[in-house]
Amino acid sequence: MRVCVASTEPGGWLLAPVDEAGLPAAPPRPARDLAALAAAVREAAEQGRSGEDTGGAASAGAVRWVWADTSSVYPALLAAGARVERCHDAALTEALLLGHEGRWGQPRSLAAAWARLTGGEVPADAGPLLPLGHRQGPGDEGDGVQDALFGPDDVPAGAAASGLPTGVDPLDALVAVHRDQQRRVGVARAVSPGFGLLVAAESAAGLAAVEMGAAGLPWRADLHDAVLVEALGPRPAHGGRPSVLRLLAEEIAALLADPRLNPDSQPEVLRALRRSGVIVSSTRRHELRKVDHPAVEPLLRYKELARLHAANGWAWRDQWVRDGRFRPEYVPGGVVSGRWASRGGGALQIPRAVRSAVVADPGHVLVVADAGQLEPRVLAALSGDAGMVAATRAGDLYAEIAAQALGRPEARAEAKLALLSAMYGGGAGSAAPALAALRRRFPAALAVLEDAARTGEDGGVVRSVLGRTSPAARPGWLDGLTDEAAGARARARGRFTRNFVVQASAADWAGVLVAGLRTRLARLGGGGRPELVFFQHDEVVLHVPRALADAAVAAVAGAGVEATRLVLPGQAVTVPLDAVVVESYADKP
DNA sequence: ACAGACCGCGCC
DNA sequence: AAAGGGCGCGGTCTGT
Asked: Which is the most buried residue in A217, A407, A428, A528, by most CB within 10 A?
């Protein structure tokens, strides 16, 4: 059963049961306030569970809550103690549908969908919230006003700012848009049979993202400090350069004969290097490594440590870690390929160097699992390339491919580079011979990529396995360009679509994994339930009461098998998803 | 003074 | 012949 949930003007809510097609199934009933809505959600969850116990189909009794936008409704609901099992997020669904219909980029909010449905003026999507990093001024002087105005407490909690024209009943709009979306999902499924699964998984991702943001990633300030002090020296009192960076900067300046040199300034460093007879076109690490000059080694060390300091140093922690938890904001569907994005704190780029600070609370463990070599395995499934599908049974796919295509198991690195080049659109130069060998041994797999690239170069769209669709080229996208520029633009687009089919299908798999995982974790019972605390493209981290560690590992494994079965065609592909139980994120092998 | 581009690097 | 996917973020530089 589905229940549409919309806020009403004085501040309450209306709950309207509808059937799978979105047609009204019972009269709407009111929920006076958030607490009443939370109570309704909890009650429905209990009924759903007892329905399972009495032998009905699993989750047949569970409610799917239909609402405008999970990210605005769910945080308050979760804070009120109501964990939602399933939902239909009209905004996320609208984005998927628009993409599939070739209308990428149109506003995706409920209000926009309503306007399109009724012929009204389509409002632009609300701009993104201020990036979290700009809402709080941690160490900055005198930011109390800033906090009062823009602090998270003051972000409207769903009821406000629907964007609908005045006089339009939000419930009417939601019911109508949902019904229309169900119809359009049906249309999309004729082309992409997995589209219904995609919509369900995307909505589940919206729930998971809010739950992860609320839970936070355990972060031990003392252990983080130990890493920073070891690398940088003691924390500088007034936010200047730590001692290790200061000394390195002086050493570099002396070696390049420029006492005023700022190693953070790329142009200055480039000029100083050239004056010293070092010919480089950039200061990228890869280029500097090729150069023989005494300043290179300290410069590379400076760059590495300066980045640690700037990106994940003390200032970062002051801003992002509260009460032992790192709480970024996750944005499902924030990347065109369906990967999640994040806002604030660089959540999806936590460097290995500081992962030792991620440690389970007392009495808890972390369960960490990542899908090994997901993208090439997905490619095998997409293409049905018999040889590559068979090769996925190997634990190390790259070594297996080196053996099969190159005849040299030891040429793993070469095979990996060639396969990544094929998926990314590179492959000139050193990878070319291995790429040709891959094409001979795995022709169907390479053909999928090359077809996708050609489609992109011609301005067409491509789809993931479940039907997530790449943006269409703008009409006239090559107009006014020289032949050379047009060719470059077209090839760039080809590289994008070439990669899209793999990256987006991998994101399909990962989305279904997360959806299945959170359902399984919810069944692991009571107050000390395992929590999903981190998700990064093909990797999950759970924070788990020690007694439930084995059960959590089993849940991960089960969710992985299910994702492979549901998402990857042919069901013959193996995706290893090895979960390990650790105290610290850094302990993952 | 401020916004936006660019660079370079972290993650997948 | 050469051609390298997706992000977020901090620091510097440039244009206004």
From this structure: A217
